[in-house]
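Box 3.1 A note on notation
Throughout this textbook, protein chains are presented in two layers. The first layer is the amino acid sequence; the second is a token string describing backbone geometry. Keep the layers aligned when reading.
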Amino acid sequence: MDSLIAWAAWLEASPLGEQMRSSALLYPALNLLHLLGLVLLLGPMLLLDARLLGAGRAFSLPAVSQVLTPLAVVGLVLLLGSGFCLFAADAGPLAVDRLLQLKLLLIILGVANALLFRHLWSARLSDWDTHAPLFGRLQAALSLLAWILVMSLGRLLAYF
């Protein structure tokens, strides 16, 4: 834990941390970019998870996945990049913040769940509506829960 705190103090004192705090436009601009990333990740993920759970059966699941997955990946990349920069502005206190730690743990869980899902089920999406595996549906439900919690914790960080 001491090495994490030392790294966070170094990051906060780094040119990036200094720039994030001193620029009148950089922090707000990256905050907006973070919001865009959130929309691009959560919108597609929630729609895809809902489809995996049986909603919108009029739409082909492979086609839905093919359209929504790249958007979610772009959103995740934007979130990770902008989130790192936002973290740098106040890294010392944030590194020990339990809400942020839980948020980061849930992000890791959400990404790991998505990668495992892709590995296990992506070849079987075409017959998902007739032979959906229980574990696959549980993964979709876990994904919904994890990403909603990530979003909620992110908003709560501003208030606690």
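Residues 2-157 form one domain. The chain has a mean pLDDT of 95.
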